[in-house]
Description:
There is one protein chain. This protein is mainly alpha-helical. It folds into 2 domains: about 5-90, Rna Polymerase Sigma Factor, Chain: A (Orthogonal Bundle); about 105-180, Arc Repressor Mutant, subunit A. The protein has helices spanning about 5-15, 20-40, 45-60, 70-90, 105-125, 130-140, 145-155, 160-175, 180-185. α1 (about 5-15) packs across α2, α4 (about 70-90) crosses α7 and α6 crosses α8 (about 160-175).
Amino acid sequence: MFKRSDETLIEKAIHGDERAWHQLVGRYQSALYYYSLRLMGNPDDARDLLQDVLLVLCRNLAQFRGDSSFKTWLFGIANYRAMDMLRKRKPTQDLDDLPELEHEDQPSHEQQLSEQQTQLLVQQKLKNLPPEQKLVVELRFYQHFTFDEIADQLAISSNTVKSRFYSALDKLRVQLEDHDVEQSASF
């Protein structure tokens, strides 16, 4: 069975084809959820953001002009909604409140635990970044968008995206140096 293009599904969904709508949403729902989870930090807020994005998509699908890819447009909606949610709240969990991971005697397990702790620490430090920088890092590292695609989504210049990205990396580097994580975090 061949895979329908986004444009074909969009056209059919606009004209009331529920199956096309479900295929289109199904294509991006998982990526949007995990994107939301990393940005928001907890499953409840991630589901709220996902639901909000899908509601906006449902209401505004006919407004998609095709100036960029559908994925870029969709993640742009998610970016704006996430920014609104992040501005309305303050970080709720301090790094000291994170549970300590238990160490086991076997080196392979210790290495795995160390990597998990590093990931938790990096995710916690990402929460400390300004929302604009956090979004750029998320889109670049986790969603693999180019600087130009991010600029399109956020309606800013590529140079502004690069500036936010490298400024965020510098801030993360400084924060992680305090925890001797710089080498394993690969920033």
